[in-house]
Structures are given as structure tokens and as C-alpha cells.
Amino acid sequence: MLEGLRIAREIGTARALDDWRGEELAPGPSADDEQSLREFIRATPSSYYHPVGTCAIGENENSVVDSELRVHGSRVCGVVDASMMPSLPSNNTLATVYAIAERGAELIRRERPRRLGGQRHW
Fold first, then answer.
1. Are 110 and 122 in contact (CB under 8 A)?
2. CA–CA distance, 82 with 54 (Å, rounded to integer)
3. Contact, 104 vs 112, CB < 8 A?
4. C-alpha–C-alpha distance, residues 105 and 101, integer Å
5. What angle do CA 49, 50, 54 make, to 5 degrees?
6. What's the rounded Cα separation, in Å, for the pair 117 and 49?
7. Is the dihedral of CA 106, 112, 113, 119 positive or negative?
8. Interatomic CA distance for residues 55 and 12, integer angstroms
9. What does the longest C-alpha to C-alpha distance in the chain come to?
10. C-alpha dist (Å) from residue 99 to 39, 96, 104
11. If 0-12 CB within 10 Å is exposed, 13-18 middle and 19+ buried, where does residue 95 land?
């Protein structure tokens, strides 16, 4: 962690970033020795955790939504978010959520002409 913090600081002070760089916010310029950096590392751990998979997609009895993102047993409810991913992707979830949203929008647009009158709500 200490070496990673040092590398991040080195990148942040690179000349190529001179036009965009502001003051270092964390750990801040006063953390200038190994002991203060270690204290910062101990005091500020956090997770980059993106929970997914709470609303399984599929066609079996354990799945919540079908392949067209509709909640099983409902004609008026769908899910278009990270909850229907079967597992956490190795990339940031944002790109995958965009893909799900695009697919959801496509499915909604396809359904709309057939279901005018408010029968299908997302």
C-alpha cells in the first residue's frame, strides 16, 4: 500500500499534469514521511465494492427476471440495473450497466407500440 501511494503521488506530480493539478487533498502535503503515510493508510481503508447479482436473470425458478428484463410473474415491472448481473464483472460496473440500460431501452421501445395504454411500466 505504501509503495502504491508513492507511485500515485509520483503520477500526480508529473509535469504532464501541471496545467490541471491542484493541491493534493489526501493524504495532503503534510504527510511527507513514511510514518505519516503509514498512519494515513491505516486510517483510511475503504472498499471499491459494487454489489451486483441480487436479482438474478434467467428462465429458472431461482431467477427474478427473464431474458427480456421482466420480473417473473409481472406484466408491468422490469429491472434495468446492476442487480441482475449474475456476477461482478472484472471491469468497473459502470460500462456493464450502460450496456444493460441500452438493452433495456431497446426492449422498452420494442414493446411500446404493442402496449399503448399504460399496460407496461418500467
1. no
2. 9
3. no
4. 6
5. 125
6. 40
7. positive
8. 39
9. 67
10. 40, 5, 9
11. exposed
Provide the whole-model pTM: 0.51
CA atoms 109, 114, 117, 119: torsion sign? negative
For residue 77, the one-letter residue type is C
CA–CA distance, 44 with 39 (Å, rounded to integer)? 9
Set 38, 50, 115, 120: catalytic member: 50
Cell numbers for 26: 489526501
Type of residue numbered 112: R
pLDDT in tens, 9-53: 999 999 999 999 989 999 998 999 999 999 999 999 877 677 788
Decide if 50 is catalytic: yes
pLDDT in tens, 67-120: 888 899 887 788 898 888 878 888 888 899 999 999 999 988 887 655 555 555
